[in-house]
């Protein structure tokens, strides 16, 4: 799996954000049984940067914590059985990896929310990456049923990884 990280802002975390991002993305891929080698882009930005992207792509004039831009379409969340049909349209010809999608995180929000929720920045950062990975696998939280499934997976995976509140 290839994880490309672009830093648009200083991170000054007390942990290795690149290693943790790789650990969480790898674990999510393994946990969900994603059957292909994947390519993921992660951008670390500030509130101003994510605000501009949120406004442009979602018409929401405010910063947010994380944005996910999946490159793949699923018949149902976490069902990878039909991806091979569209594999040629979704892979990087240079690497042969399927382009899973883009994750954009506001470092400012990681810090704000960790403090607000009373847990570590490491836990908040890992949570946002995992949350976004589940979106890249087709999961969502628009209905109570979808939210329950996605939240259950988030809790299960973070517990398995021993990344606790």
Automatic annotation (TrEMBL):
It comes from the Bacteria. It is found in: Cytoplasm. Its main location: cytoplasm. The keyword Aminoacyl-tRNA synthetase does not apply. GO terms for molecular function: metalloendopeptidase activity; RNA endonuclease activity; zinc ion binding. It comes from Roseburia intestinalis L1-82. Single strand-specific metallo-endoribonuclease involved in late-stage 70S ribosome quality control and in maturation of the 3' terminus of the 16S rRNA. This is Endoribonuclease YbeY. Keywords: Cytoplasm, Endonuclease, Hydrolase, Metal-binding, Nuclease, Ribosome biogenesis, rRNA processing, Zinc. Its cofactor is Zn(2+). HAMAP family: Endoribonucl_YbeY. Zn(2+) binds at residues 131, 135, 141.
